[in-house]
């Protein structure tokens, strides 16, 4: 991992947590690749599908964690109510766009 930059979007602890989650997902995906390479029977395909679903769910949870962390950090760092509302509107738009 590269050095983390100071940020008003996410705290260092939030970044560390997200990066840890993504590293675990990366490991899951490597395992899926290995399962696919070694798949020989229909039941092997079931195992691949199960692992893919687990990785997808973990990635979805990471996405929610990203939004939640960003919301917490940006609202805590807002100078006033108007800035907090503007930040919430941006995050709502991001949620609508990507979720």
From TrEMBL:
Name used for this protein in its record: Metal-sensing transcriptional repressor
Domain of life, per lineage: Bacteria
Protein family per UniProt: Belongs to the FrmR/RcnR family.
Lineage of source species: Bacteria, Pseudomonadati, Pseudomonadota, Betaproteobacteria, Burkholderiales
A Pfam family matched in the record: Trns_repr_metal
Signal peptide: none
CDD domains: CsoR-like_DUF156 (cd10148)
């Amino acid at each position: 991992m590269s050095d983390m930059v100071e940020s008003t979007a996410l705290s260092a602890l939030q970044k560390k947590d997200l990066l840890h989650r993504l590293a675990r997902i990366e490991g899951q995906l490597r395992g899926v690749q290995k399962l696919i390479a070694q798949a020989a029977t229909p039941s092997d395909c079931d195992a691949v599908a199960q692992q893919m679903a687990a990785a997808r769910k973990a990635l979805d949870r990471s996405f929610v964690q990203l939004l939640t962390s960003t919301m917490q950090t940006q609202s805590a760092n807002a100078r006033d109510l108007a800035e907090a509302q503007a930040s919430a509107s941006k995050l709502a738009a991001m949620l609508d766009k990507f979720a």
